[in-house]
Amino acid sequence: MSSTMLAGVAAPDGLKVTEIARPNPGPGEILVKVAAAGLNRADLFAATMSPARTPIGMEWAGEVVEIGADVRGFTVGNRVACSGAGGYAEYAVCNARRAIRISNKLDLVEAATLPLVLMTAHNALSTVGAMKAGDKVLIHGASSGAGIAAVRIARLLGAGFIAATARNEGNRARLADLGADLVIDPAEGWSAQLREATGGHGADVIVDMVTGPGLRETMKAAALLGRIVNVGRLGGPAAEIDLDLHAVNRLSLIGVTFRTRTIDEIAEITRGVETALWHHVETGALRLPLDKVFPLAEATAALERMAANRHFGKIALTM
After folding, report:
1. How do residues 23-77 score in pLDDT, each as one tens digit?
2. 293 with 208, same domain?
3. Same domain, yes or no, for 100 and 127?
4. For labelling alongside 156, which of 129, 132, 148, 230 has CA 20 to 30 A away?
5. Contact status, residue 160 vs residue 136, Cβ threshold 8 Å
6. Model's pTM, two decimal places?
7. How many CB atoms lie within 10 A of CB 223?
8. Residues 107 and 203 in one domain
9. Helix/strand/coil percent split, the chain, to 5
């Protein structure tokens, strides 16, 4: 095995594909020969803000080629889907507790686009949002990878009603095909449309990818005792909170991020996805749209497509 590899690394003026040293697995880690990596919006920030020549990429899939000390449950040759850091590369190291074994029938490109978005959406809906069968759910900013995953997962978990918002008209039509009962253009006053569709009840669980100045309108869409999970800030980090509305409806506004989670917390989220959802992935019941696949050499073009919001579903890189 060569001691070097090609990787997409951070640079001050944007991602560069270059040859760097191949990593070695430490205790508790596995080394994976990467077949494909999924793109996530955080990669746009990492491409310029990570330490120079650091491989970026938060999810990938491939085959285990080396096992570190103290690893249990994996052997060389296992096919795995992983989350972590450094997935835009021919080889990547993963903490074994963040890896999911996958069958030979699951396509590795598809598998590479799933770990992080399924972890994000399942945690927001089921664990943090405490969604129950029959709940009315809103996915705000639903055309992102995590947003689409949340729509699909909410349906699998038995949501009684699923609403989704998206600004692009074509994306709204596709969200309806993916299982949303109501798809809304989040123009001014959109919460009234959701309340009418739910007979005045509102949404019990809201997974919010947008936040920003639109948070007040999102709060107006929430049901009594509604849970709003702040997953993304596509609308910006600043928001106005109507404290009267917050108090009268006894709303819970919950923030989540992987940046401050410990490995134990991430391992628990990974096992939650593996237990609750992975059999749906393997049987084909849980699928996400694959927007476009680029080779590693064109990683910059792939990131540009994401930055321009020209995609619906996931973008992947192949090695």
Report:
1. 999 999 999 999 999 999 999 999 999 999 999 999 999 999 999 999 999 999 9
2. no
3. no
4. 230
5. yes
6. 0.94
7. 20
8. no
9. 35, 30, 40
